[in-house]
Amino acid sequence: MALDFGTARESETYALILLASLGTVVLSGAADLLVLAAGFLLASIPLYALIGIGGTKAGAEAALKTYLLGALFGILLLLGVTVLYAVSGTTSYAGLRGGLSTAAPAVVGVGLVGVLAGLMFKAGAVPGHFWVPDAAEGAGTAAAAFATTVPKIGGFLAAYRLLEVMPGSVRWPLLVALLSVLTMTLGNLAAYTQTNPRRLLGWSTVSQAGYLLMPVAVAGSVPLALPSLVVFLTGYAVSNLAAFAVIGAYPRRRELRAYEGLAAARPWHAVALVVALLSLVGTPPTAVFLGKLTVFAAAWEGGFWWLTVAAAVNTVISLFYYLRWLAPAFRTASPDSPGAGDFTPQPWAGRTAVTASVMILALAVGAGLAWAALSGPHVG
């Protein structure tokens, strides 16, 4: 069954998704700065087209913003790659640590900041986050779900792999920790003012990037860091897709209060929305709960107790703007609410929402076995 991408050009859309996914795989698996740059471009260029392929005014605006930011941060990434190569004499990660350990820390710092800036664009984190809410609002539903989920995987795994080989002469852990706090706080505060569910999820995506930066800040120094990052990414991806699937089921509802009466009309979809949003908060027994628990533990073990406290406060804050979406869904529809009483869903999206919500709970229930497999001997 064909998916509703918000465009009739489905063949091109599938091709763009596959190309962007391939770029994400290359980016996350890169062990060379030149491969990292190639992966960044391959993951970015199809994404610009995917966001704007629907041909709407909002989609075109979002695509232009994403392209301009992507071009800027792509230049910064290439500049960083050039600087790191110039001072280390190699682009291979295997030789970077030795080559950079004798270089001037200030120069290494400049190169690293440039590369990190590019990767933060892919991850949707500060300072490269501005495109995310516009893409979530302007792109087709499936394209928006893809854009706010898949690029994050490549961005965070690429940042982790690079930072693992960075020398201790540069205080990059503190930089990443500060970016983490800024990202989660900005995302949460901005989400409070949103009345559009797509835009709310866009800013939610930004805030989640802040939590995902916590294990990146202790990359290579805490054994718990990489397993916690992978677990969080898995839980976040399923939860975010479930929330966007609910939006896809009712694509004409562009206001939070337009969901009034959802629980009475479509109880399973309301349950799916509850599970998805509570998982994004990080409440048990959902998939993101384990992810947050482990990234908090990794940051604390790495000495960033203040980052853990800030993340806990932000988690509590985030509950309230998710409730702004859940509360209307469980209220009786008022006569003046948009589309009152008419909840005729898109079948594929409704089924996806319910299936994804079941997966969220299944991941949480089976978390013990998955965690043991990911953490190996480091976690008993």
Task: Please characterize this protein's 3D structure.
The chain has 380 residues and is mostly helical. The protein is built from 17 helices and no strands. α6 crosses α10 (197-216) and α14 (287-301) runs antiparallel to α15.
Order of helices and strands: HHHHHHHHHHHHHHHHH
How many DSSP helices? 17
- Choose one word for the global shape: globular
Strand coverage percent: under 5%
Uncertain ranges? 1-6
Q: Can you tell me the number of structural domains?
A: 2
Radius of gyration over all CA atoms, rounded: 20 Å
Report the span from N to C terminus.
44 Å
List the helices and strands and how they pair.
Blueprint (H helix, E strand, L loop, with lengths): L9 H20 L3 H20 L4 H32 L4 H9 L3 H19 L7 H8 L2 H7 L2 H14 L8 H20 L5 H20 L8 H25 L12 H4 L1 H15 L5 H15 L3 H25 L17 H19 L1 H9 L5
Helix pairs in contact: 1-2, 1-8, 2-3, 3-4, 3-5, 3-6, 5-8, 6-7, 6-10, 7-11, 8-10, 8-11, 9-10, 9-15, 10-11, 10-14, 10-15, 11-13, 11-14, 11-16, 11-17, 13-15, 13-16, 14-15, 14-16
